Amino acid sequence: MGALLVGAAGALLVLVGAQGLRLLGSTGLEDQVITHQGEQDEGPRGFAAFVDRLGARFQRTLMAMYGPARLRRLEDRLRRAGRPERLTVSAFMQRQAGFTVLGMVVVVLLALAGQALLGVIFGLVFAAWMEVWLRMVAARRRRQIDRDLPDFLDVLGVTVRAGTSFRQAVERVSAFHAGPLAEEMATALREMQLGVPRRDAFIGVRDRAQSENVSTFVTALLQAEELGVPLAEALGSISSEVRRQRAQQVRRDAAKAAPRVSLVVTMTIVPGALILMMAGMLISNLGSLGDVFG
């Protein structure tokens, strides 16, 4: 009986792990189907749909436990992460409840199999999975924005120097590029079309992106607008500054990665080299060792 429970828990963990790897590799855009025929969204499928159905009964309870203030913060975090998989607050909480229920099932199964501590560990992992996943998605999106911004500004500067107005230039460059930065710019354009001042729209981009480079771009752009600096010249200066900051970030990341690489080399190559040396010494001295030990 214990072996069956352990096997069932193991199968469940494999399924959840496979779905977790899929989510980690997802940008949140793969499932978005753009259609002009009025087709309805089919919603999540597969394991995600199973988790959502599992958490449907407990969604309201979990939202009540979070409270209004925490739910508002969650809404801000989802917006900054680009709404991965088009999740709203209620959909996020439903999936969070589903993973929590799955964690409780794993805890019970492993406890019955005599592995209570392991069950508690996996239960905590399941309960915290959606929060961890959202943080990783937001961080990956921020890195993508940092990578795209210098090229975006270069093309934007060329378009403005060609005589195109700033708003039309942003619209054209956003349509040409793909990714989260283009999405944020398109959102700012829609807000400006609805009457939001350009300053407020770009401040919104800065707040949602949570990127040091985007903050530099928006701040410099607004200052240039206030001081009357020619926009094409300002964009060139901003692009150079952003590239300089990006280069510094890459150097910092490389400096942080060096100790990790050294640790991996130490933990993998050194033990193998020691084993090889000791094996060679033993083989070359088998005769002497045989005389010593009789």
From TrEMBL:
Q: Which GO terms describe its cellular component?
A: plasma membrane
Where's the Type II secretion system protein GspF domain?
A: 152-278
Quote the InterPro entries the UniProt record gives: DUF5936, T2SS_GspF_dom, T2SS_GspF_sf
* Keyword Transmembrane belongs to the record: yes
The UniProt entry lists membrane topology as:
Multi-pass membrane protein
Q: Where are the transmembrane segments?
A: 101-134, 261-283
Q: Which residues form the DUF5936 domain?
A: 49-138
Specify whether Transmembrane is a keyword of the entry. yes
Q: What is this protein called?
A: Type II secretion system F family protein
Q: What is the lineage of its organism?
A: Bacteria, Bacillati, Actinomycetota, Actinomycetes, Micrococcales
